[in-house]
Design goal:
globular; transmembrane; 6 helices; 35% strand; four-stranded antiparallel beta sheet; membrane; alpha+beta; single chain; 2 domains; Neuraminidase
Length: 429
């Protein structure tokens, strides 16, 4: 290779690095409904399976509702919690059927959905996908509500690229109770460029932040008064309907610098954070947690981009953004930062968020108050009970920095090799 060719190759690599580091997305003005359902349906294995499931009670249409969502490489994954009987599959991938209806395909298979099989998923409320590795971190409470089987809660790490389970960790009953847990949401913490910890909100009888240490394959938890509703309960009015909630810690979000985990009770307006250093090292939670501020609305799910925190304002039926600067300064004014103009369709109960590789914020709105009060309409109606929304925010998710740095490291490696070759070439010449 001549010196001229080496210099040209080096210029191309440098230009590629500039393109990667300067990747910018155009921010959209409106949120779009990608999918909506009056009632859910699934991809059944055989003709007649659906009707058999309806007859024997393993599929009760009105007991199925979407809550969690994650998007990876154009694939949309959703959870259908087993709050009530008749939920055939709890973790799914959205797909189109032969008649172009959006249906749910059990993920990764029907076998992994069997109630009573402790090796399968019993009740999945949420999951997280690491875009750097293509690994899905799935949390399973271990038992369907009202069921007779009590499996240990577990976390399953699944490789979406190779389609196999990398790790399955069953929580000890002393860490996550088999009988009373409600593993709700999960975030991933990177240490030294590698995914090391997962932090999980347990909305059960004893509210917790559960910590899973991937490197040592062990788990432990923290319980603190800040995880409980300040006044014991909150009346939430959404789209004219109301219900009293006593739900403790629910929403959890990782800051993009991996320095803090933010959390809040659903039936409360207070937002708190805890340094990840405390969670990693089993430090003193009571002496380290921080009050961030008071939100204008109770919230369910929330997530960080590289520039701010996105939350669903349940009493305003809207999505709000809070900047990193505001959070660091302890000033919360969510009512002043709606993400987009109010759409024509309802945003009743914004539940769970994710941000894809193209800078799109995805979220589920599922009319949860109607579900809990048994007022959802499933027959002879054009009304949609559940919607998946998407809006381009021009920002990447909290895990993006590792993807970007990984790309840069590869380029730096090639540049280093080229520099060595150039030095060697000059010496030989």
């Amino acid at each position: 290779m001549t010196l001229h060719k080496l210099l040209v190759y080096l210029f191309v690599l440098k230009s590629s690095w500039l393109l990667i580091s300067a990747k910018v997305f155009k921010q959209g003005k409106d949120a779009d409904v990608v999918y909506k359902w009056t009632k859910l349906d699934f991809k059944w294995l055989h003709t007649g399976d659906k009707q058999n499931a309806i007859r024997n009670g393993t599929f009760i249409v009105e007991n199925n509702i979407i809550t969690g969502i994650k998007v990876y490489s154009g694939r949309i994954f959703v959870t259908v919690p087993r709050w009530r009987p008749g939920v055939p599959t709890t973790l799914n991938e959205v797909m189109n059927s032969s008649d172009d209806r959006a249906i749910l395909n059990p993920f990764p298979s029907w076998d992994m959905q069997k109630i009573g099989d402790c090796g399968a998923f019993q009740y999945v409320q949420s999951m997280e996908i690491d875009p750097n590795t293509g690994h899905m971190w799935i949390i399973d409470t271990g038992s369907a509500r009202g069921g007779t089987t009590q499996c240990n809660a577990k976390i399953v790490i699944y490789d979406l690229k190779s389609n196999y389970i990398i790790r399955k960790h069953s929580f000890l009953d002393s860490v996550v109770s088999k009988d009373t847990n409600f593993l709700n949401d999960i975030v991933i913490d990177y240490v030294n460029g590698m995914p090391r910890f997962a932090y999980i909100s347990d909305t059960g009888k004893v509210p917790k932040i559960v910590v899973y240490d991937y490197e040592n394959d062990e788990s432990y938890f923290f319980n603190h008064k800040s995880m409980y509703p300040e006044n014991g309960y909150m009346t939430i009015i959404s789209n004219g309907k109301q219900r009293n909630f006593t739900t403790p810690i629910d929403g959890i979000a990782m800051s993009p610098d991996f320095q803090y985990v933010y959390y809040c009770a659903l039936a409360d307006l207070n937002l708190y954070r805890i340094p990840t250093e405390v969670l990693r090292e089993r430090g003193n939670f009571s002496q380290s947690y921080q009050y961030v501020g008071r939100k204008s609305s109770p919230t369910d799910g929330m997530t960080f981009s590289q520039q701010g925190l996105y939350v669903g304002a349940l009493t305003a039926d809207m999505v709000f953004k809070e900047s990193l600067e505001s959070l660091q300064g302890g000033s919360i004014n969510l009512t002043e930062a709606p993400l987009f103009p109010r759409p024509m369709e309802t945003l009743e109960w914004v539940d769970t968020f994710c941000i894809d590789e193209d800078g799109n914020l995805w979220f589920v709105a599922n009319s949860l108050v109607c579900f809990f009060t048994y007022t959802m309409r499933f027959k002879n109606t054009e009304n949609a009970n559940m919607r998946i929304w998407k809006v381009n925010i021009g920002e990447q998710g909290y895990l993006w920095r590792n993807t970007n740095m990984a790309s840069r490291h590869q380029i730096y490696y090639h540049i280093l090799i080229l520099m060595i070759l150039m030095i060697k070439f000059s010496i030989v010449s």
